[in-house]
Amino acid sequence: MxxxxxxxxxxxxxxxxxxxxxYFIEKDMVLGLKDLxxxxxxxxxxxxxxxxxxxxxxxxxxxxxNVGEIKYARCKGFCDVHHHADWHPHFQCDVCxxxxxxxxxxxxxxxxxxxxxxxxxxxxxTGVCPDCTx
Length: 134
Ligand SMILES: [Zn+2]
Ligand SMILES: [Zn+2]
Ligand SMILES: [Zn+2]
Description:
Blueprint: H1 2-8, H2 15-27, E1 31-32, H3 33-39, H4 45-57, E2 61-64, E3 71-74, E4 90-93, E5 99-101, E6 124-127
Parallel strand pairs: 4-6
Antiparallel strand pairs: 1-3, 2-3, 4-5
Bound molecules: zinc ion (ZN) (3 copies).
One zinc ion binds at residues 59, 62, 75, 77, 79, 84, 86.
């Protein structure tokens, strides 16, 4: 399964890339560089970092960068090289600091004043997740 995904996104298959992608699929959650360093303590940190960057560039994962440390989630849309099609809000729990994708909520189209060029819109919702309620 991971080989197919890597192939589809034109990413050369390496053991590290297979491991990281498998981990993303298995965990099915938002992960940061630190999580992966902990999961693969024997692997070179630079290689892990580069793997994430490659995946982001090729449309396999997307970065969520306003949560302090950059976190990554697997793309579910039809993302491609340099073209992410999965703009959606993210939710961060104030208690456990866990982050999830809010996939089905569209981000409103905000009209910019004349002369401003849109590049991206980031929506971060904060609150308390079901695990931390009660
Ligand atoms: Zn994406
Ligand atoms: Zn929580
Ligand atoms: Zn997301």
